[in-house]
Write a structure and sequence with these properties.
Shape: elongated
Structural class: alpha/beta
Strand order of the largest sheet: 9-8-7-6-10-11
Number of helices: 13
Largest sheet: 6 strands, mixed
Length: 380
């Protein structure tokens, strides 16, 4: 197959390519269109995904923030080859016209999107157009968060890097005193996920919280806590980063990163821009969740609310750094492994976009309410 060089808009391929072919060879145009038909494209026997019961296309984000459904040039070129090799077309049909090819440098983000039925694919472009109209009056903050959401989805889908959720707990009377460190890390060995959870704390009797912040230091739910001296946290972080960097790119995952990074003077790595090839990068689940909600404000939702609205099960004993890191990674995994941002929003919260326009999800009070009696968040 030809090397991937760019992307074609789905609308150009579906509506215009076969017409251009028909103008040159009237017999081949309809044959090209038939292999691109919605129901044919998702069929388990389709040449683009033989034996797989879903079709993969791509979602691209243009510089203006709007989305487009795309074929890769690799897919288009393979269809040309396959149609001719199977003697369905007389010759290898010509490529689509060059000015409809989008180069990777012309897209802010590209991520895979999957369709299991022809109906899903048929409706996808209508929903994309609808959401593009809603996005027109959105601010730059939401546009940037949406771009990041799709870049993260793309990077996560490659399964070639490490994702490390970090959380600190501080003494409530002096936020420069770290009392706990939580680490929850993910990498892949082949296609298998490898998860590592860890919780480090200073002595259980030193610098206890409980008046202003819940004290769950001894309520770690994912293994044994390790007691280390106050000056030992930086070495744990350094050793963890060095070890996991062996798996490729390293993504540091925080929930509301500014607080942790600023408070503890950790070097702030850049957010992933396009497709990085080396280095350490920052991902903030509060930004991803804001993109999913269509939230244009600068407010950040607390981890417990994010877990509640994403319906992450068995969440308890938050404000233990190890538990917080674990559930931060769980939130990242759910969002990064899901569908593109607009599709995922509608899957999670159907018909929840409010009447004021835009993309903001609006919940009822009952949907947002966290039941404290269920022992989900702060302990026994």
């Amino acid at each position: 197959m030809a090397e991937l060089t760019g992307y074609y808009r789905w609308t150009d391929i579906w509506f215009n390519w076969y017409e251009a072919i028909s103008a040159v060879n009237p017999e081949d145009g309809p044959k090209v269109k038939s292999v691109l038909a919605h129901d044919a494209l998702v069929d388990v026997g389709h040449p683009l995904h033989p034996g797989v019961a879903e079709a993969q296309l791509f979602m691209g984000i243009l510089p203006n923030g709007q989305s487009r459904l795309l074929f890769s040039s690799k897919q288009v070129d393979y269809l040309r080859y396959w149609l001719h090799a199977m003697q369905i077309t007389k010759t290898r049909v010509p490529l689509p016209y060059s000015n409809c090819l989008l180069l990777p440098s012309e897209l802010k983000a590209v991520s895979p999107v999957y369709f299991k039925t022809g109906g899903e694919l048929r409706n996808a472009n209508k929903e994309i157009e609808k959401n593009n109209k809603r996005l027109k009056n959105s601010n730059s903050s939401l546009t940037a968060r949406r771009d990041t959401f799709e870049r993260v989805r793309n990077l996560y889908s490659q399964k070639k890097s490490s994702w490390v959720a970090i959380d600190f707990e501080e003494w409530e009377y002096d936020h420069t005193v770290i009392t706990e460190l939580g680490v929850s890390a993910l990498h892949w060995e082949g296609s298998a996920e490898v998860i590592e959870d860890a919780h480090y704390m200073i002595s259980a009797t030193e610098y206890r919280n409980g008046k202003y912040v819940a004290d769950n230091r001894t309520n770690y739910d994912f293994g044994e806590s390790q007691i280390i001296p106050r000056n030992g946290f930086l070495k744990v972080i350094t050793d963890t980063f060095e070890r996991l960097s062996a798996h490729g790119l390293l993504f540091l995952v925080f929930h509301d990163a500014n607080g942790d990074l600023n408070a503890h003077e950790i070097l702030v790595p850049p957010s992933p821009d396009r497709v990085p090839t080396a280095g350490m990068f920052l991902v903030d689940t509060s930004d991803l969740f804001a993109a999913l909600l269509g939230d244009e404000s600068f407010n950040r939702h607390k981890l417990e609310k994010v877990c509640h609205l994403l319906q992450i099960p068995k969440v308890r004993h938050l404000h233990n750094a190890g538990n917080d890191a674990h559930f931060t990674l769980e939130a990242l995994k759910l969002m990064a492994s899901g569908a593109p941002v607009d599709v995922q929003r509608e899957e999670r919260w159907p018909k929840h976009i409010g009447p004021r326009g835009g993309l903001q999800v609006e919940f009822t009070e009952e949907e947002e309410e966290i039941d404290d009696d269920m022992d989900l968040y702060y302990g026994e």
